[in-house]
Design goal:
InterPro entries: F420H2_quin_Rdtase, Split_barrel_FMN-bd. It comes from Nocardia terrae. Belongs to the F420H(2)-dependent quinone reductase family. The structure is a single chain. The protein is an alpha+beta fold. The chain has 5 helices and 7 strands. The protein has a single domain, classed as Roll (Pnp Oxidase, Chain A), CATH 2.30.110. It is globular and about 35 Å long.
Length: 166
């Protein structure tokens, strides 16, 4: 699985990646931003190599729409917990959960692209003490997530992506 060098990121890169300005984006603007990040990720072998997200640990999460059955791809920042990938359903502190979160609740079997690897995974929402532990480690790396939590009344879910054995 992808071994991103989290230590190599500068605080400036993390702050640029985590700008809260995105909360005010329209649905069309979100979609355009996501499509650009997906394009950059795939064009550069699983790494975003230019723009404000340059060098950040990013994965592409493919989900099946909870209502539509349509396939959706979402670029997400991540950390690791052993072999599992950890993502936060922050939507930059917006009042509602991101669409991908509703999709994994309905259809937890997902596909993940991390670095140059592609694999199937099972998504699960972390609960209780495990969620607390993962929240601490995730927000230590991505402090913006804790800031997003302060700006919303919803609890930002932590989602684990566990690779399935082949």
């Amino acid at each position: 699985m992808s071994d991103f060098d989290f230590e190599a990121l500068s605080q400036t890169q993390i702050e640029q990646f985590s700008s809260a300005a995105g909360v005010a984006l329209s649905r069309a603007e979100w979609e355009a931003l996501n499509q650009e990040q997906i394009r950059l990720f795939r064009a550069n072998g699983g790494m975003i190599a230019e723009g404000q997200f340059q060098g950040t640990p990013t994965l592409l999460l493919t989900t099946i729409g909870a209502r539509s059955g349509t396939t959706y791809v979402s670029p997400l920042g991540y950390t690791r917990d052993g072999n599992r990938y950890v993502v936060a359903a922050s939507k930059l502190g917006a009042p509602k959960h991101p669409g991908w979160f509703h999709n994994v609740l309905a259809n937890p079997h997902v596909s993940v692209e991390a670095g140059s690897e592609r694999f199937e995974a099972e998504a699960a929402v972390a609960q209780g003490p495990e969620r607390d532990r993962l929240w601490e480690s995730h927000t230590a790396f991505w402090p913006n997530i804790a800031e997003y939590q302060r700006h919303t009344t919803r609890v930002i879910p932590i989602v684990l992506l566990e690779p399935l054995l082949k």
